Amino acid sequence: MNILLIYPPHAQFRVTETIKISIGGFVPPLGLLYLARMLEDNGHHVTVIDSTAEQTPEDAVQRALSNIDVVGMTVYSGKAGRDASTRIARIVKDYDPDIPLLLGGPHLTLFPHQCLIDHQAQVGVQGEAEHRINAIMDAFAGQTPFANIPGITYYNNGAVHQTEPSPQLLDLDPLPFPSRHLVKHYEYGYSGGVKLIPGSVTSMMTSRGCSFHCRFCQQSVFLPHYCAHSTPRITAEIDAIVDQGYTSIAFADDNFLANKKRTMHIMDHIITHGYDLTLWILNARVDSADRELYEKLRKAGVEHIIFGIESGDQDILNYYNKKTTLDQIRTAVTLSHEMGFFTTANFILGAPIETHHHIEHTIAFIRSLPLDNILIKELGFGAHSPLWQEAVDHGKINPDEDLVTAGRERDLGRFSTRQLQRYCNQVYYAFMLNPRYFIRQARYALEHQNPRYLHLGARILLKIMTG
Questions:
Q1: What is the signed CA dihedral for 218, 248, 73, 113, rounded to 10 degrees?
Q2: Confidence of residue 316 (pLDDT cuts 50, 70, 90)
Q3: Residue 179 to residues 73, 87, 199, 235: CA-CA distances in angstroms?
Q4: Are 133 and 125 in contact (CB under 8 A)?
Q5: Residue 20 pLDDT > 70
Q6: Residue 120, Cβ neighbours under 10 Å: how many?
Q7: Degrees, nearest 5: CA angle 86-51-149
Q8: Would you state the pLDDT for residue 37?
Q9: How many Cβ atoms from other residues are within 10 Å of residue 432's Cβ?
Q10: E-assigned strands of 316-382?
Q11: What's the predicted TM-score (pTM) here?
Q12: What confidence category does residue 50 fall into, taking pLDDT thresholds of 50, 70 and 90?
């Protein structure tokens, strides 16, 4: 079969709720590339369109639909994500209403019935799909009934049917390497329209899930158990990535530094093989800070670490069940800065118990840290996260709402949504307009002989000043 897999154009560089910049292609859509490999190994012909890396994504989809037997697409939650995928679905159905449309991704997993209706799709697969994707294609070809495939929602004779849930994959090593060659023609590494990750960029995941259960996080809904590839499997994939000519790797695990011993082995492999790689760690917890580990990261080529910090007030961290302390945050950021890593931190404002006092603590805390960049947003009650479920139980959120912004309008916080937006902007302005910020960026540019971070900062500052 000829199969088209589409990653929708949902991504923006979101500085704050009111400051957004088009992002460009950041890293490849690994989920689709794993599925593509399973399909290719079973004799199917696969095309992947990454709309985030396309100049005109809807035109690219239109051009690719000729001679396609099945279209598969990821669907993300939130209005922007849903709107992007429904636009793509309309293009597919306008081209040929008889082309089967298969959906997957976070929103489909959370709201399978409504998602099929909204996208006029025939089948939705909930959770990980690698072990079921070929059976689904056999069902599209009439070789097996959909009813025999676990964890899917499908239309049959005008009615929606749901099969028994499919368990999470706990042994990841049997999975083949993703089909990175299908997106080799795209250039990745862009954020905010600036080429931040140098060279030929790919991503990889060495684990799935997270051992922690923060109250705002949906991860345990999709992947209730933390599981990881073995170190030999990881190092073999790194070897393959280098052989394919990539010079930069972004580790996209939910918590790449979860296991110090494993991470040390991975870095040792890169060092002993003399691989000249630029490494980004897209998600890290501050409780992973360790001088021996960070020195190994630096030696292996780590350039950038993104920490999920969330707040500069201990009461709020405790409320979120982060299981981290302000001292741990300060230690991790300071050590990261000392190692020469470009250090980014994510923050959230709007916890239901959060007051002006808490936010002032966060602002003061951010100013005290040697951070190179921050990303800040209002708290979102994501479907089936612990916070969302509590709000549903108290009648504040409807069970069919997938993402609700905190705000006192619905008794979900102490500030209005508009006030939270202003606070987010205030925090970001205070960070960006601090002279020390551009001094750090200029110093980093000189030391690394590359002004890319300075260019991004200037672009964001221009966006702030022009509204």
A1: -10
A2: very high
A3: 16, 26, 19, 17
A4: yes
A5: no
A6: 14
A7: 60
A8: 98
A9: 17
A10: 342-349, 373-378, 380-382
A11: 0.93
A12: very high
Q: How many CA atoms lie within 13 A of 110 on its CB side?
A: 24
Rg (CA), the chain: 22
Q: Amino acid identity, residue 276? A: D
Q: Which CATH class, in words, describes the domain spanning 197-432?
A: alpha beta
Q: Give CA–CA dist 374/308, Å, rounded.
A: 10
Which one, of 41, 31, 13, lies nearest residue 109 by Cα? Answer: 31
Q: Which amino acid is at 403?
A: L
Asked if 377 contacts 424 with a C-beta cutoff of 8 angstroms, the reply is yes
Structure tokens at 438: 């551009």
Identify the three-state secondary structure at position 190: strand
CATH number, domain 2-158, options 3.40.50.720, 3.40.50.10300, 3.90.950.10, 2.60.200.30 = 3.40.50.10300
* Residue 184 to residue 187: CA distance in whole angstroms: 8
What single-letter amino acid sits at 272?
A: T
> C-alpha angle 126/43/185, rounded to 5°?
80
d(CA 420, CA 412): 12
Q: Which of 161, 174, 313, 184 is nearest to 246 (CA)?
A: 184
The residue type of 397 is I
The domain segmentation of the chain, as residue ranges, is 2-158, 197-432
Instruction: Detail the DSSP E strand segments found in 147-277.
Output: 152-156, 159-162, 190-191, 194-195, 201-204, 207-208, 227-228, 248-251
**Degrees, nearest 5: CA angle 458-464-467:** 135
